[in-house]
Amino acid sequence: MVKKAIAVDLDGTFLHSDQSFDEARFETFLNQWLDQGHEFILATGREEKLIDHLFANYLDRLNLVVNNGAVMRARFDSQSVAAYLSQTALGGLQAIIQKFHPTDSVLAFSDNHFYGIAGFGERDSGSMALLEASFGPIIWVDHLLDIEEAVTSVTANFGEQASEQVGEYVNATLGEIVHATTSGMGALDVLAKGVNKASGLEKLLTKLAIAPEDLTVFGDGMNDVEMMQLAGQVFVMPNGDARLMDLGYQIASFDNNADGVFYEAERILAQEINN
Asked: Tens of pLDDT along 113-168?
């Protein structure tokens, strides 16, 4: 038997627009998929503690590649593996943030806390409530270098168009030490150099003894491109970034709100059972 894995992005892919998913359907699929000897992976820009909160009932059955690849955790491990931003990177990012002034908050994430940089606004109340339910209260600081623990990622919202331009600027000026990627809705995520969903997945697949060609991925955004290039089978969500539609990948039959991931994944599962 060839061991396989399915990796899904969350926002715009697996989750509905209201952040929900069909839990009963997922429970059934997940158990049957694991019974076939395969693995299921959440590959998201969301943070580990938030995923632990949202998927608390499934954690013993899920592998995680979170923070856009900065953090990886196999389901049989109690500890995650993380890549952190350097102090030089944080200082450079602070200067860029002050130059371009984000429209809707600057957040930085460590393993166990999240920080807001004062003077750049706040997230909407719904987002903040979810983050605080996962991490505890936000910690406000004046400067990224005021954070006294290792930082896995920095997220800032510059608006839909500006985030692309600022991301290009970050990669041009700090590209030797960081990697910036857009994650949708005008957000820009900054990670350590060489970190993306594919780099996290490569480490995880090695741990799970699964070849990249036996990986199927689902995604909708430009921060999914690297893992799409890694995988043997790819489904782009029909509601995804228009640029993904031109890359030659399969388009899922239904969007995220119509459970497009389940439709395709259940077809893959049926083929496995019938073989």
From this structure: 999 999 998 888 889 999 999 999 999 999 999 999 999 999 999 887 889 999 99
Q: How far is CA 225 from CA 51, 181, 220, 266, in A?
A: 21, 10, 9, 23
Using alpha carbons only, give the angle 79, 85, 87 rounded to the nearest 5 degrees: 130
Check if the beta carbon of residue 233 is closer than 8 Å to that of residue 263.
no
pLDDT in tens, 247-258: 999 999 999 999
Is 184 in contact with 156 (CB distance < 8 Å)? no
What angle separates helix 87-100 from helix 160-174, to the nearest 10 degrees? 140
Cβ(199)–Cβ(226) under 8 Å? yes
Cβ atoms of 221 and 241 within 8 Å: the answer is yes
Was domain 5-82+195-274 assigned CATH 3.40.50.1000? yes
Q: Out of 3.30.1240.10, 1.10.3720.10, 2.170.150.40, 3.40.50.150, which CATH number does the structure's domain 87-192 have?
A: 3.30.1240.10
Burial group, residue 230, by CB count within 10 angstroms (0-12, 13-18, 19+): buried
pLDDT digits (tens, 9 = 90+) for 222-271: 999 999 999 999 999 999 999 999 999 999 999 999 999 999 999 999 99
